[in-house]
Amino acid sequence: MRRPAVRILAGAALASLSLAAAQAQGAPERRDFCADRPGKGSPSCVIDPGVFQAEVGAFDASFQRSGPGSSDTYAIGELELRLGLTPTTEGQIAWTPYTQVRDRSGGQSVRTEGVGDVTFALRRSLKNPDGSGVSVALQPFVSAPTGKSGIGAGAWQGGLIAPISVPLSADISLALAPEFDVVADADGHGSHLGWVGVVGISRSFGALSLGAELWAAVDDDPAERTTQASFDLTLAWTPVDDLQFDFGVNAGLTRDTPDLQVGAGIARRF
Known about the structure:
Elements: H1 3-26, E1 52-64, E2 70-76, E3 78-86, E4 89-95, E5 98-105, E6 108-114, E7 118-127, E8 135-144, E9 157-161, E10 164-167, E11 172-176, E12 179-184, E13 191-205, E14 208-220, E15 225-240, E16 243-252, E17 260-269
Antiparallel strand pairs: 1-2, 1-3, 1-17, 2-5, 3-4, 4-7, 5-6, 7-8, 8-9, 8-10, 9-12, 10-11, 11-13, 12-13, 13-14, 14-15, 15-16, 16-17
């Protein structure tokens, strides 16, 4: 190859590297990794516009022994897909492809299995979408009755969550997630209101984050009012900026709540 050609190629390579470096420097820095998992509360942070994030529950299991019978529930592949739409808004789709419920009573056992309902949500930040400082958001959602009978609700449902986070120190933060729901009646002939509340504290240790939550839910079904509550512990590990592994265990505090729930999953930002 002639020297002029070599010089041209070398110049083109240097120009390409310089352009890539300039673009990298000019590109806006991504926000801190923001995952919905683990825990029952919704975070107030919103992912960057154009960013796609997938969160998967590898397994979730709950066991209830209170009352005349017992009930075990297993869910595999609980999926949530998130997409940043604007600097302050993201869209979400959540669906569980497989759930199995085993009910035992009076020496008999009934097993129900199938897919769950599909939930669509929007999270709109009102203050600090990156989750820094005092961060506030609103998250309306609606669930379509796509689940199998005995697994899904059997009717359209919806509600509104208002996630709030407050830093208590450089490594400790407080999170609140008040929620009200419009829930289908158990007899399938109407709807009623439900209320949910989550209060949690998390502490980061570098790539590890430990959390503790108190969760409560009141369902005012005309047939029977139920009150659930649990104390939840969570662990999240973020080995790199765009990847998280998590584990959680929940202890039931009322008769209507599963005695024990465990689960693990992964979240990945693209």
